[in-house]
Amino acid sequence: MELVGNLLSVRHDVRVFDATIRDGGLVNDFYFSDEFVKDLYNMNVKAGVDYMEFGYKASKDIFDVNKFGKWKFCNDDDIRSIVGDNDTKLKVSVMADVGRCDYKHDIQEKSNSPIDMIRVATYINTLPEALAIIEDAEKKGYETTCNIMAISNCQENDVKYALEMLAQSSTEAIYIVDSYGALYPEQIRRIADLYLNTTAKYGKKIGIHAHNNQQCAFANTIEALSIGCSFLDATVCGMGRGAGNCSLEGLIGFLKNPEYKLFPVLQFIEKHMVPLKESGVVWGYDIPYMLTGLVDQHPRTAIAAIKENDTRYVDLYKNLLDRD
Question: What is the pTM for the complete model shown?
Answer without folding.
Answer: 0.96
